[in-house]
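Tutorial, part two.
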Amino acid sequence: MPPITRPPSSTAVNLVSRWVPHCSHWVVQLSDRILVQVDSITPAQFRRYLQQPIVSSLTTPTPPTSQWQSPIGNRRLWMTFWSTPFPHKTLTPWYRLLHNSTWPSALCQLCRSASEDGYHFFVSCHHKWPFWQAALDIFGLSQLFSDPRSLWAALTTLTDSTGGRLPTSSLVALGTILDSIWRFHWRCIHDGSPWSHRVVLAMFLSSVPT
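Running the prediction step on this input gives:
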């Protein structure tokens, strides 16, 4: 069998020019004042363009506050998120929390007493909040996050009550706790077993560096 050879570059260019339409007259509107030609748009600009309809269609999760807004377009928040040295396993649950993507249910499968939105899933379920209290106390953060609403505000903004960035150590601690909740929640769902404060706390302690 004769070897396969690449066609000359000029041939490839000619093929592309015949198959792909000329796009210089196509533009993308990034804002009221900014238009970018399709053939010169950067990946970052294209992502921003794709996020616009998503941001405008998202509703504010409830509870806890009417002031909480979708963080998808919050550049400062995402810079904090991606620059924090989280354990890799932390990224998935917190990323889903920030995108309000946790498969909400009309009824929490663990407590069977409330609807399950992101707030209930991660924080306010009466099985999970006692675990948060115990885990926060281990990190010395129980006074900073003394109730579910203050904790939720921190998880959805990555800031403290004054709007300042949370210390890296606090963010990593919250991520470690969040990961334990995420993993044990789905373990309970998949195994059909009840939530156990003792078991999830032991699982959490095994993941905390000594």
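The chain has nine helices and two strands. In part three we will examine how such features are distributed along the chain.
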